[in-house]
Here is the input.
Amino acid sequence: MIPEGVPHAARAGLLEPDIMIEPLLWLASIASDGVTGRRLVASHWDPELPQAEAAKGATELASWAEP
Here is the structure.
C-alpha cells in the first residue's frame, strides 16, 4: 500500500511489485553467490533471457565500488 498523501505524480513512477519477483528469486539463489558491490535495477531485468544474462543486464557497479 502507498501511504496517503503521496502525490499522484510520484505514484505514477512506481513499479508494479511483480517486476521484483524474478530478480529477487535470483538474488535468493546460489546463482547470485559472489555478486557483491553491484546495484540491481529490477526494471532492467529481461525475463526473456536466461537468468545469468538477465542479471548481467540488470546490474551495474555500485557507486562506491572500484571498477
Observations:
- The CA atoms of residues 45 and 56 lie 9 Å apart.
- The chain has a mean pLDDT of 88.
- Residues 51-58 form the longest helix (8 residues).
